[in-house]
Design brief:
Layout (H helix, E strand, L loop, with lengths): L1 H34 L8 H24 L2 H10 L7 H20 L5 H10 L1 H17 L1
Helix pairs in contact: 1-2, 2-6, 4-6
Length: 140
């Protein structure tokens, strides 16, 4: 019982923290965009801020996505069974993550220097898709 209560508290805290971040980041962007004059073209600084916000959202998404499998893994481990799990859900999720991850890999540029930039630019989404695919293997 103590383990499940701790897990629930952890999940609630995690969800509240991420909801707060998901509210604060867009609000900050709106405030910054509102403060800029409408006649002024967007500078590199504001583009960098928007791009960085995209990366932050990508990593938050990755953490949520990876974290979503741990409660199921924990439950299966505690029960020592996968009874009650929807195999169609996990099969569909595995196929979706596999094809999404492959789409990112197959779009990778041929030139070596651009590959590194592309890989780093898409890292949160690659980790999310292939990481969850790996965790789904353990769930199933």
């Amino acid at each position: 019982i103590l383990g499940s209560k701790s897990l629930k508290n952890f999940c609630i805290t995690w969800i509240l923290m991420c909801i707060t971040l998901c509210i604060v980041l867009p609000c900050q962007l709106l405030i910054r965009n509102h403060d800029q004059s409408s006649a002024m073209a967007r500078s590199n600084i504001s583009l960098d801020m928007i791009e960085m916000s995209g990366f932050v959202c990508g990593y938050i998404s990755c953490v949520f996505y990876l974290g979503s499998r741990f409660p199921q893994l924990y439950k299966n481990f505690q029960r020592k069974s996968t009874e009650g799990s929807s195999y169609l859900l996990f099969a569909s999720a595995m196929l979706g993550n596999c094809t999404y991850g492959l789409s990112l890999v197959l779009k990778m540029p041929a030139a070596g220097s651009f590959r590194t930039f592309y890989f780093l630019h898409h890292l949160p989404w690659l980790l999310g898709s292939f990481g969850v695919l790996l965790l789904d293997v353990f769930v199933s």
